[in-house]
Each structure stands twice: as C-alpha cells, then as structure tokens.
Write a structure and sequence with these properties.
alpha/beta, 3 domains, four-stranded mixed β-sheet
Length: 227
C-alpha cells in the first residue's frame, strides 16, 4: 500500500472519530433521519395547599399531586404529601403543603419529546390521588421554563349547594353559581379557573334538567349560611 493511500485512510478514520454518530449515519445513509431528544430546560415549580372535600391534606397522609400532559405516557411531575418540604421555603418546617416540580424541555426541529416531560407552552393537567385510588383532575397550567407559581388545589365533588365543600353556603358559592348560570336549556359554560361544566351541574342543577338557571337559585338561597 502506498503512503498516499495510508494517509487517506488515516484521514477518513480521523473524520469518523470526530463526527457524531448522527453525522456518520447521514453520510453513509443519506435518507436516514436522526431524531434528537428534548433539550432540558429549568423546570416549573408549583406549590400550595391541598384541600380534599373541605379538609386540608396533611403531611404524612396518602395524598399525591400528579402532573400529566395529554399524549405523554408518564407523569411529568409528582409529589406525595411530605416528600420534600422546604425547597422553596414555602413548605419549610414540614408545613402542610405540596411542592411539585414539573420537568420541562424544548425541541429542535425534528426532535422527539421525552416520555416524562412537558414542552414549553403545553397544557399540564394536575390531578390528586388519594390512598392509591384514581387520579382526579383539579387544575391545569401552561408549562414554562424557570417559573415558580403558587396554586392551591381543591378536590371537591361539589355536593349541592356547597360548591367548594367547606361546610357552608356563602358568597363564594353564589359567585360560582353566577358563573355556571347559562339560562334554561343551555349547558353551563363556566369561566372561573378550575370550574367545569360537570361541576356546575353536580353542585347547582337542583331540578336535574341539565342546565343551571334561576329555577336552581331558590335552593341555594334557602341554604345560605354565610362563611
């Protein structure tokens, strides 16, 4: 073998050593597409109180806060009451609050989202799970990088007419009723954060006719106790 051929071979070997595997594959197989993984970003931290059926969830109780994104197979964050108090200072000293860290990433063109992370701008749904039971939706946020947000969570099955399950019927319940009231034969279209159509009907549709209207106001008025 001539010295020139040996030099060429050494040069080719050097190129393959310094190139990334994706570059090598694209040279050898021009139609090969290399999918890059998500780029980790500083995550989103949610913290606050957890209330279940009007009672605060305490450290040590079997209550978990779980974050999910539709289409992503695994949770993008989870927190069991008492897991890690004090990271933001809000839960310092074992206070009865949660602190949920949500994994956030961005993508390069052609990249693939991880199976346990939210992309910036995606909707993240928050669920509460009690005693290993089903996860129940309570709120949602938009994934953002390097953000810390207070979000108090309330899991309530909205018994009539105490919407917020706090043991009284007060102006908070009346405010939610007003938001749910869409008139006769119209499904509720609430705009308050965390209020869903099904919640409106379970709490205020006294005559079970599929709407919330002024006919449903009388039971609310009769039950009014104040805070």
């Amino acid at each position: 073998m001539t010295e020139e051929k040996r030099s060429n071979r050494r040069h080719i070997a050097s190129c393959f050593t310094t190139w990334s595997m994706g570059t090598v594959l694209s040279v050898l197989f021009p139609n090969y597409v290399v999918a890059s993984a998500g780029i980790p970003e500083a995550g989103l931290v949610l913290y606050g109180s957890v209330t279940v059926e009007g009672q605060p969830a305490r450290v040590g109780e079997d209550v978990a806060v779980i974050a999910r994104v539709d289409g992503v197979p695994n949770p993008v964050g989870s927190y069991h009451m008492g897991d890690n108090p004090g990271a933001t200072g809000v839960c310092a000293g074992g206070a009865d609050c949660y602190e949920l860290r949500i994994k956030v990433e961005s993508l390069e063109p052609g990249g693939t989202q991880s199976d346990d992370a939210a992309l910036i701008g995606q909707t993240v749904k928050i669920y509460i799970q009690q005693d290993g039971g089903p996860e129940e939706y309570v709120a949602e946020v938009v994934a953002n990088r390097a953000a810390i947000m207070e979000l108090n969570l309330n899991l309530c099955h909205h018994t009539q007419p105490d919407y917020d399950c706090d043991g009284d019927v007060d102006l908070t319940d009346f405010t939610t009723f007003a938001d749910c009231n869409a008139g006769p034969d119209q499904p509720p279209a609430p705009t308050l954060p965390g209020v869903a159509t099904a919640d409106c009907l379970s709490a205020f549709d006294d005559d079970s006719d599929g709407d919330v209207d002024m006919l449903d106001l009388q039971p609310l008025q009769a039950a009014f106790t104040g805070p």
